[in-house]
Specification:
The chain is α/β, with parallel strands linked by helices. The protein has 10 helices and 8 strands. The strands form 2 sheets. It has a 5-stranded parallel beta sheet. A 3-stranded antiparallel beta sheet has the order 3-4-5, with helices on one face. The mean pLDDT is 87.
C-alpha cells in the first residue's frame, strides 16, 4: 500500500534551501526524491520548446500529461539530480530565473496541477520519499509523516540565488533577483489554487541567519523524532 510508504514533505519559497536539504536528507535516509518545483519548470520549458502559450491551460495540461522526463542521480553534491527532458539534459536551463518565472505562471493552473498528480505520486516508493515543493504537505501528500516548511527573508534568498547563479557563470542582477523573488512570493501566496503556506502541522524553520548545516541539523532532528514516534506506534 502506498500509504504505508513514509513521505517527508519539505515546502517553502524559492531560495529557502529546501532543495539542498531535500537532497541531503534523502541521501542520509536512503529515500527517493521528488523535486516538484522542477516539474513546473519542465512544463514551462517544454511549452516554450513546443510553442505552447503559458496561459493556454488545456494545451499545457495535455503537454504535462505526456511529459518525457527523467530524474537521474549524479555524484555532484552541488547538482545531485540530472533532469532529462525528451532525451536532453535541461538541468542548467531549469535553474535560471526565467525558468522560475515560467514555473510560477504555470503552477497556479488547476488543470496542469491535476495532470501531474499521478506523476507526483508515482515517486512514492519504498523505502520512502522526500518531496520538495510548495504544496507537498498541504495538497499532494497531506498524509506525510513529517512536514517541514523552510523560509527566509527575500533579501537572504536573493543573495543566495545570486551567488549560486554567479558560480555557474549565469549572468544575473541582484536587485532584479530580489524584485523577482518578491513578485513570485506574492503570486505563490495569493494564488487561488494551492497557495504557498505552511501546513498546520508543519515544523516551520527560518533559515535567514542559519547556514545549510545548521538547517539540516534542525530538519534531521525533527524527522528522526517523528519517524521514531511512528515506528513505536506501529510496534
Amino acid at each position: 500500500m502506498a500509504e504505508e510508504i513514509p513521505v517527508i514533505a519539505i515546502d517553502g519559497p524559492g531560495g529557502s534551501g529546501k532543495g539542498v536539504i531535500t537532497y541531503k536528507l534523502a541521501a542520509h535516509l536512503g529515500f527517493h526524491i521528488l523535486d516538484s518545483g522542477a516539474l513546473y519548470r519542465i512544463i514551462g520549458l517544454a511549452a516554450r520548446n513546443h510553442s505552447v502559450e503559458l496561459d493556454g491551460e488545456p494545451a499545457l495540461a495535455e503537454l504535462a500529461r505526456t511529459l518525457d522526463v527523467r530524474f537521474e542521480p549524479t555524484q555532484d553534491p552541488e547538482a545531485p539530480l540530472r533532469i532529462m527532458l525528451e532525451g536532453a539534459d535541461v538541468t542548467k536551463a531549469l535553474r535560471t530565473d526565467d525558468a522560475a518565472r515560467d514555473a510560477s505562471r504555470v503552477a497556479p493552473l488547476a488543470k496542469v496541477r491535476e495532470s501531474i498528480g499521478a506523476l507526483q505520486h508515482s515517486f512514492r516508493q519504498f523505502p520512502g520519499l522526500v518531496a520538495d515543493g510548495r504544496d507537498m504537505g498541504t495538497v499532494v501528500f497531506t498524509d506525510a509523516v513529517v512536514k517541514i516548511y523552510l523560509t527566509a527573508s527575500a533579501e537572504a534568498r536573493a543573495e543566495r540565488r545570486y551567488n549560486q547563479l554567479k558560480d555557474k557563470d549565469i549572468g544575473v542582477n541582484l536587485h532584479d533577483l530580489f524584485e523577482s523573488i518578491q513578485a513570485r512570493d506574492e503570486r505563490d501566496m495569493k494564488r487561488a489554487v494551492a497557495p504557498l503556506k505552511p501546513a498546520q502541522d508543519a515544523y516551520v524553520i527560518d533559515s535567514t541567519a542559519l547556514d545549510i548545516d545548521q538547517v539540516f541539523a534542525l530538519v534531521l532532528s525533527a524527522v528522526q523524532e517523528k519517524l521514531a514516534a511512528v515506528k513505536d506506534k506501529l510496534g
